[in-house]
Amino acid sequence: MNKNVIQTVFLVLFMGSGIYFYQAYNVGEKLDRLVAIMGNIAHNLQHAKHAYEIDINISDDELNEINITKISKEMKSSLDKKKEKAPPVVRSAPIAIEADEIREEEHPVHNKARAVKAKLVRLEDLPAKFKPLKKYLHEPFKMGACQICHVANTNKPGDLVRKNIHEICYECHKTRYTKKFDHKPVKEGKCMDCHDPHQSDTKRLLKADSVNNLCLKCHDKKSTFKDRARKQFINMKLPVKHKPIVKKSCLECHDAHTADHKMLLNLDAKMDLCLDCHDDIKEQIHDSKFKHGGVNNSKRRCLECHNPHATKHKKLLKKDQISMCLTCHDKEVKSDEDGGMLMNMKKHLKENPNWHGPIKDVAKEGGCVACHDPHGSNNFSILRKSFTKNFYDNFENKEFFCFKCHEQKKVVEQYTINDKITKFRDGDVNLHYLHVNDRKGRSCRACHDEHASKYKHLIRDYTDFNGVKFPLRYINAEDGGSCAPACHKKFEYDRINPKGIGR
Amino acid sequence: MKCRQFSIMRALFPGALLFAVVLHAMDPVLEITQPKHKAVVHDEALVTVVVAPQHEGVHSVMMTSDTNETVTFNIKSTQSHYCHTFTLHLGENNISIFALRDGNVMKALTRQIFVTSKVDKAYRYAPKQYQRSFFHTDAQEKVCSKCHNMSVNETPGVAFEDVSKSNCFACHVKINFKKYAHAPSVNWLCTRCHSGKAGDFNEDDVNRTKFLVPDPIGPVCLKCHEKKKKLWKNKRYHHEPADSGRCNKCHNPHASNNFNYLRKPVWELCTGCHKDKVDGAHVVKTFGRTMHPTHKVKDPSRKDNRELNCVSCHNPHVSNAPFMLQSDSLMSLCSRCHKK
């Protein structure tokens, strides 16, 4: 008896725990899934050919029954709802206008039928302030259809049909100005700032006698118009003006209403716009072997140096030539040519009082630009003609730039007593000849500094020989002088009492 | 008691006497700080002798070399060390240093110094007892720095406007007292070569002196003589010293009385190693009764009146032709002088 009870108790406990685990761990489901998977595998192994067959068949009739238009409408409405949720756009959205429409608007044809219904005012009956009539008349004004814009039969004459005047303008002139950048008056709807709604002596019903004068009404330093406009002033009283402004008008470059580029320009102001007309410089800038960093990879490109409107200085430069160059070259600048550092020219000129002719007399000799081409060149250091970088360079058969101004006789003639040819002589021995010719002929730059020097005749204080700076130790005397460079020991020369060099 | 004391005194006396004698013998009177005895001097036949009188009685110090270069210093109480740079000759040099008091020699010392030569085989190596010593070490410069500025005041890559302002100038000025001087030397750009770095052959000397020159020096030379580097690169034959970068074997990097800073005139220099050519039995000996000259005549291939020497026919550095000839073929070489 006892034995049975114990057996049943154990059985019950065993069964209970079994059921508990069966439920807790979903053993049933797992087994089912295992069976299904194994079954599938077994089936696929048996019927391998039909493993990927799909049995969906839609007939043409069924397809026709699907209402595509309805679906599309539903989709659109849902999309519209989404759009409404989006924050309101501040700028008026661009309106797509076809070319024909624009052409129409250039010469707006007014709806005379509508005007006829309204009261037409004859020219003779216009208020006295409009007389005498001017050269160009606004079409509605010419027709006498005042009621297109003005409210008829009110106490206040000249009351407008709508509160905002630009809304009236845009009734007929449908082109909204919707490119990237708008002129501020356009943006604010102040059409009347520039245009007269009735009549004018200038084309396009302008409020001034010419386009330029209209622009300068605001964009003048003395203008009391607007702060920002005054900031972007143009002083057309300066002597050097950009030709298109003088010969034509501001509109050559700028658009009065709207444009895709900053400053209301049709092309990028930094360079593309300029090169659109200046073809020759375009070639030079793009094709030359050595490029000027000022144009090639600066922030403002052409505008780094040039003012596009008017300046005091030649070539529309912002400052006079030398100080223009020295605005950048007042520190060591990285060269585009070889990645080296260009010297601090401002410091160099400041420290060395004897300057090379072209820099000394800019007006007569041409300044920096006499030798360097700021737009780029095929010669190193953007020089206008070839020169050498080497210490030793036989000048024969080479066109050295120096000889554009300096006479070749200086170095070609072995004996001379002509002071005009050269003063670097020991008696009649031309010491230039001695230095420059022969197998190890030295280039000009071995002894002379091209820019400025402490010594007379632009003699260098240090000459660079294979990366070492050697002083020339030049001493100037009345009839000669002496040098004690690294090349030789101290040699003296004298024009009158020769010391016997080169004999 | 007395007796015992006396016995102690008697025992001590000879000891004290001996001590006094030893002390007198050890009494320095004069100390030679530089150079060390039996020192070897390479390259430049110059040595700086530094002496320090240790005794109050010394009134003056006289130094004399073999070549009768004599210098006398009057001793001042303010100055502790006295120095002079002697010019030496190849081989063994004796420098005598005398401490004088009222014209009487208090003490005489000698220093033996051996000067080696790179091209003279007789003086190529110093005798065994001689040892190389270096001057510019921190410890020794301390002595000099009382009077001399021992720092390097050279701006790298910029020569002195006034060379006498170089701190090296005062002691080493004699290096350049020759007919031809090399630009870096005469402009006192010393550290361009004396960089303190060692080459493959003198790695052991790295920290022994501040101004060590790498050996081989070639790479340093070619830093300036860039063109040679390109020129020599693709040639077929190379002269051994030029190839191994020992330019300073033939050239004196500072100054020389010979052209191209050669250590000796060309013919002597070449025959220093190529001894078989000395007797003149060189080139076409068999054809004529007289042999082809190798020196002591004018060089007809040159416009200037230079003497014919080895370099007239042979290139001392590189060549594409056998025998290191100057031109590419033998015929074209002969026809330089033997026209028609």
The order of strands across the largest sheet of chain A is 15-16-17
**Largest β sheet strand count, sense and barrel closure of chain B:** 6 strands, mixed
Low-confidence residue ranges of chain B: none
Mean pLDDT of chain A, nearest integer? 78
Give the biggest sheet of chain A.
3 strands, antiparallel
Give the number of helices of chain A. Answer: 21
Mean pLDDT of chain B: 84
Overall geometry of chain B comes to elongated
Structural class of chain A: alpha+beta
User: Using only CA atoms, what is the Rg of chain A?
Assistant: 44 Å
Which class best fits the helix and strand makeup of chain B?
A: alpha+beta
Biggest interface between protein chains, with counts per chain? A-B, 13 and 16 residues
What strand order characterises the main sheet of chain B?
5-4-7-8-2-9
Number of domains of chain B: 3
Detailed description of the structure:
The complex is a heterodimer of chains A (503) and B (340). Chain A is of the alpha+beta class. Chain A has helices at residues 2-24, 27-46, 60-65, 68-85, 99-106, 112-117, 139-143, 165-172, 184-187, 211-218, 227-231, 243-247, 272-277, 279-287, 293-296, 321-328, 345-351, 357-360, 362-365, 409-412, 431-436, and strands spanning 136-137, 181-182, 199-200, 240-241, 258-259, 310-311, 333-334, 341-342, 354-355, 425-426, 429-430, 452-453, 462-465, 468-471, 475-476, 480-483, 491-494. Chain A has a 3-stranded antiparallel β-sheet with strand order 15-16-17, with no helix packed on it. Chain A has a two-stranded antiparallel ribbon with strand order 1-3. Chain A has a two-stranded antiparallel ribbon with strand order 2-5. Chain A is 33% helix and 8% strand. The longest helix of chain A is centred in the N-terminal third of the chain and has 23 residues, at 2-24. Among the domains of chain A are: 99-175, no CATH class; 267-382, no CATH class; 401-494, no CATH class. Chain A is built from 21 helices and 17 strands. Chain A is flat and about 145 Å long. A 6-stranded mixed β-sheet of chain B has the order 5-4-7-8-2-9, with no helix packed on it. Chain B has 340 residues and is an alpha+beta fold. Helices cover 22% and strands 19% of the residues of chain B. Chain B is built from 10 helices and 13 strands. Chain B is elongated. Chain B folds into 3 domains: 28-133, Immunoglobulin-like (Sandwich), CATH 2.60.40.10; 137-264, no CATH class; 276-340, no CATH class. Chain A binds chain B through residues 461-462, 465-471, 473, 486-487, 489, and chain B through 157-161, 181, 183-184, 186-187, 189, 192, 223-226.
